Give the backbone structure.
Amino acid sequence: MNATASSDPRSPIAGEAAQTASAAWRPGTFALRDAWFPVAHSRDIGAGDSLRFVHGQAFCLRRGSDGVFAEDRRPDAQASGSGAAQRVPAIERYGYVWVWFGDRDNADPGLIPDIPFLHPNKPQPAYATGTAFFDCTYELLLENILDLTHIDYIHNVYSGDAEDAESDDVEFMATSETVTMIRTTRKRPTSRYQREVLGVEAPYQDQSAFTHIFIRSGMCFLHSHYSNAPSMPLMQSNTPESSRLTRANFAFGTQQTDDPAFRRQWPATAAMVAAQDNSVLAPQNPRYVDAPEGADLSTRFDAAGLEFRKRYNALVERQKRGDFSYLSDAEDGSDIAEILKVKRIGSGSRR
Ligand SMILES: [Fe+2]
């Protein structure tokens, strides 16, 4: 496999990031803040209280006549006010309830990510959505998502054998808030799932796989294109509830495929794929979270994963200095719909 770091102009990593590259990797020890977190599916929130957590902070969600609202249920938040729970900024968009974790004065709705393959004002069908839990801190889950080799071994039934592919290239791009990885594989043997469930007869696939992660919130977009098999994108929340538990609310972009059987079948594989990942992540977590300062037991063959660590550490350093702002490169002008190669649905225009 050729891992080629892109020399994209959006990656001014030479200075700052090179410095933080050598910094200790301490997942689960710092809560990045001032971000929107898609903590619940809209359809799961009704008139009764629903609790959600971001970095151990409890949010109580409820649907009233004006829509969904959220309250901070920490004891000190209630004590500081009139004794009542404090309202927290909450917005419904893309079929999710988003809460703001951080200083409420900075809660700009424009910071909710653009998700071109989900309708901004309409939830996806129930069969296309769900929730998985991972017994690990969210940084480990994001590394797992960026680690290509695990896909070939753990999810082989769905992905097929990359080792027999004609070529396999990886490039990545990054901003201060995101890491994007694109893997292009030529002439990869058609996977068992594609052969046996989808009935794909072509022996090989050219595949482009996209991974786009948001460092502050943990959210990610995943998408693959196959030359001779259907596919659809996935948004997954990866919300850090604690350093031991990550909640992954997910929604598939079912509108991107014309194959009605695949549209129903593929989202049903999500639980199995999540279980495969969790079987690896759960035992890994204590070795990272409880590791002594400076210890790093990971392998470093994945360039995009290493880039994620640099960018994550850079954000932590800025927030430790009291700087919670978004840098201008986070709005870099590129259209994520073009990068993911998905068609934009709904009336969702780019901000
Ligand atoms: Fe995985």
About this structure: The CA atoms of residues 83 and 195 lie 61 Å apart. Residues 144, 150-151, 154-155, 277 surround fe (ii) ion (CB under 6 Å). The chain has two domains: 2-28+129-340, 44-112. Residues 1-22 have pLDDT under 50 and may be disordered.
